[in-house]
Amino acid sequence: MAPLWPCILVAISGILATGTPQPRNSALHHLTKQLLQKYHKEVRPVRDWSEATLVNLDLFVHAILDVDAQNQKLKTSVWYREVWNDEFLSWNSSMFDEIREISLPLSAIWAPDIIINECVDIERSPDLPYVYVNSSGTIRNSKPIQVVSACSLEIYAFPFDVQNCSLTFNSILHTVEDVDLAFLRSREDIKHDKKAFLNDSEWELLSISSTYQILQKSTGNFAQIQFNVVIRRHPLVYVVRLLIPSIFLMLVDLGSFYLPPNCRARIVFKTNVLVGYTIFRVNMSNEVPGSTASTPLIGVFFTVCMALLVLSLSKSVLLIRCLCDEWHGGQERPLLCLPGYTDADEPRMEPRAQRAGVTESSICQEHQDQSGTLKEVWSQLHSINNYLQTQDQMARQETEWLALLYRFDLLLFRSYLVVLGLYAITLCSLWALWSGL
Ligand SMILES: *[C@@H]1O[C@H](CO)[C@@H](O)[C@H](O)[C@H]1NC(C)=O
Ligand SMILES: *[C@@H]1O[C@H](CO)[C@@H](O)[C@H](O)[C@H]1NC(C)=O
Ligand SMILES: *[C@@H]1O[C@H](CO)[C@@H](O)[C@H](O)[C@H]1NC(C)=O
Ligand SMILES: *[C@@H]1O[C@H](CO)[C@@H](O)[C@H](O)[C@H]1NC(C)=O
């Protein structure tokens, strides 16, 4: 049996080869040959030279790949389609086995030289070698393009920003007398078509409005079609990662105003908040887009918050310094700072301070002696009395200073409230603008 197999296979393949004459394929070959034999791709395919070739354009935005505010570049993935008529590529389909449509190599036929004006970089777009031609000579060419286009990006309202970038198509050489442009679909259809758009990106496609214009240049009149791609950012991720943490940190710092201004713990508290805020900003510095042309409002807000933090910390340092100065000349005077909550490390610190011979008064590290006897209280009161008597003049000056600082404290507290309020109002109005579109 085994040696028979090759013979059977040869016989079957012979039957298949001779039994199917492949008329479609040969007709296709015949047609392609006939179409391209006398074709000159250098010549614009019109019988009457004064007639313009009408190129119909269509555009689908597929995805927003990158919005680079620093370099003012937008990278989009679009599906581009152009349709034109070639008067030399038509045939009578009943003479060619009812073939209505064939594909031809793009390199073999005339094609319009349409470019995107804003294009600054050619990305990897597949070079599709074929176009479809139907029997009346209509050529359809469609290709996906990754366009890196120059666009004036407005990041002032980040993360509630809306961008309006245009893609302008025109023939690089041919004037409107030779190559004219038109829309393939109605402009309303183009405007609201979001079917091809990938929804789960950072950006949402709002609309693609389009205009047809004739541009007058010194070299002639050029037809151009402009698509305005309007996109808006999904702000939620930035609200969660940027806005809310920064507001929380400011609220925490606002809480420090409930500590008495002369309390040393306040400095520690404020320093911690400042360090926290700095770490937060360093971490998030890549999240906020920046450009030389404009700064996002939220960046300005962060800086103002930082300035407030630094200002109030310096004020606290100044205040404590003033209070400490007071005791340099005289005895210690207890200033009450959080009578209920004593510093946990105070008992450890005081002996050390004494050992080091530091004359820092207990004012600076709130003095709260648990085993305070009447005698000690009396001696303290006495020392205050002494102090007031000996340095009355100086103390009055100091008190004025202190009053000023307290007033400043109140002022700072109010500016915190004002800044936070302004921030909230601004965000709300930006959000309202954003959602109104
Ligand atoms: C196409 O060819 C068929 C048969 O040869 C003929 O009857 C018909 O008129 C032709 N049509 C055109 C549009 O030339
Ligand atoms: C070729 O395509 C064009 C545009 O799609 C259409 O108007 C025309 O009827 C088609 N011709 C044939 C023979 O199908
Ligand atoms: C986008 O910009 C174009 C001109 O640059 C303008 O005509 C169009 O109205 C703008 N669209 C929106 C939604 O702002
Ligand atoms: C995106 O959402 C729109 C409606 O919101 C829908 O019509 C469209 O099919 C979606 N696109 C994709 C790719 O899922």
CATH third-level topology of the largest domain? Acetylcholine Binding Protein, Chain: A
Would you list the SSEs in sequence order as H and E? HHEEEEEEEEEHEEHHHHHH
Query: Which ligands occur here?
Result: 2-acetamido-2-deoxy-beta-D-glucopyranose
Q: Compute the gyration radius: what is it? A: 40 Å
Helical coverage, percent range: 40-55%
Strand elements, count:
11
Discrete helix count = 9
Number of domains: 2
Shape: rod-shaped
User: How big a fraction of the residues is strand?
Assistant: 15-25%
- Mean residue pLDDT: 81
Q: So, CATH architecture of the largest domain?
A: Distorted Sandwich
Q: What structural class should be given to the helix and strand makeup?
A: alpha+beta
Q: Could you give me the name of the CATH homologous superfamily of the largest domain?
A: Neurotransmitter-gated ion-channel ligand-binding domain
List the helices and strands and how they pair.
Elements: H1 4-19, H2 23-37, E1 53-68, E2 73-85, E3 101-105, E4 114-116, E5 119-122, E6 130-134, E7 138-150, E8 162-171, E9 179-183, H3 187-192, E10 203-217, E11 220-233, H4 236-255, H5 264-284, H6 297-329, H7 346-355, H8 374-390, H9 392-436
Parallel strand pairs: 1-9
Antiparallel strand pairs: 1-2, 2-7, 3-6, 4-8, 5-7, 6-7, 8-11, 10-11
The structure holds 2-acetamido-2-deoxy-beta-D-glucopyranose (4 copies).
